[in-house]
Amino acid sequence: MGERSDGFVGVFDSGLGGISVLRSLVAELPHEDFRYFGDSANAPYGEKAEAQVLELSQGIAERFLADGAKAIVIACNTATSAAAATLRAAHPDVPIVGIEPALKPAARAFPRGRILVMATEMTLHLDKYHELARAWGGECEVVPVPCPGLAARIERGDLDAPDLAEMVAGLVGGYAGSIDAVVLGCTHYPFVRAQIARALGPGVAFFDGGAGTARQLRARLTDEGLLSERDRSGRVSFASSLDTPHELALYQSFFSMPL
Ligand code: DGL
């Protein structure tokens, strides 16, 4: 398919959280070129109005397409809920892959379990989540846990600081010993999975949507004849609306930190 399959995949999030998804994308599709954009100047999205998140997402998608993106990954649950349908309707010829809380695999693994879904207030408020809970919740007890402030705090880095562990304990510590699984329904949260696990105690399974999103991208690129045919490893580049050396170094460190 020549030229178009040589194009890059644009990946975006409100900030650096979507780098957790980017890691899955690169693992699944190592020959693709990825350009990551984090809108850290406008993070967090989860505490904004839906219309504003839609507008910001449209702006980012338009810029990717103007630069020649062959596909777009919305590496943000909040922006997927607020903007995916509109973006797909506006660009029916471009694969646009979103992410949603991984409730389906969690409910399959724990069909009668008690499952926490940690996400932004907006994700848990919008229809997409309610449809997901209706479709896949089955006989589980699904407990939505909005986490105001958590994504914004993760944006600042310094993930081992005690204030972050305290914040996480304040959000989920009350569920310690009483749940089977946690769905990390915001792409920032895989970076504090260890802190969440500590607050909840042993024996809790974790689910996030990164790997599913990567498989979905592979399927869409394959269907459209857009998979890269090159042999070398793809290139990964980063840009941020907070365009400072400090911010871009933070993005790089989130890309390579052991999780
Ligand atoms: N990372 C985003 C998500 O997956 C949201 C974080 C934010 O509130 O900006 O929902």
Q: Any overview of this molecule?
A:
The chain is of the alpha/beta class and 259 residues long. It has 2 domains: 4-99 and 210-256, Rossmann fold; 103-207, Rossmann fold. The protein has helices spanning 2-5, 19-28, 50-66, 77-90, 103-109, 121-125, 127-136, 150-155, 162-172, 193-200, 210-223, 245-256, and strands spanning 9-13, 34-38, 71-74, 96-97, 114-119, 141-146, 181-184, 205-208, 236-240. The strands form 2 sheets. A 5-stranded parallel β-sheet has the order 4-3-1-2-9, with helices on both faces. The chain has a 4-stranded parallel β-sheet with strand order 6-5-7-8. Helix 10 (193-200) links the parallel strand 7 (181-184) and strand 8. It starts with a helix and ends with a helix.
Question: Care to give the gist of this entry?
Answer:
The chain has 259 residues and is α/β, with parallel strands linked by helices. 46% of the residues lie in helices and 16% in strands.
Fold topology:
Elements: H1 2-5, E1 9-13, H2 19-28, E2 34-38, H3 50-66, E3 71-74, H4 77-90, E4 96-97, H5 103-109, E5 114-119, H6 121-125, H7 127-136, E6 141-146, H8 150-155, H9 162-172, E7 181-184, H10 193-200, E8 205-208, H11 210-223, E9 236-240, H12 245-256
Helix pairs in contact: 2-11, 3-4, 5-7, 9-10
Bound molecules: D-glutamic acid.
Q: Which parts are unreliable, with pLDDT below 50 for 5 consecutive residues or more? A: none
- Radius of gyration (CA) equals 18 Å
Number of strands: 9
Provide the CATH architecture of the largest domain.
Answer: 3-Layer(aba) Sandwich
- Distance between the terminal alpha carbons, to the nearest Å? 36 Å
Report mean pLDDT, rounded to a whole number. Answer: 96
Physical arrangement of strands within the biggest beta sheet: 4-3-1-2-9
Indicate the structural class. Answer: alpha/beta
Instruction: Determine the number of helices (DSSP H or I, runs of at least 4 residues).
Output: 12
Proportion in β-strands = 15-25%
Q: Would you list the SSEs in sequence order as H and E?
A: HEHEHEHEHEHHEHHEHEHEH
* Global shape: globular
CATH topology of the largest domain: Rossmann fold
Number of individual domains = 2
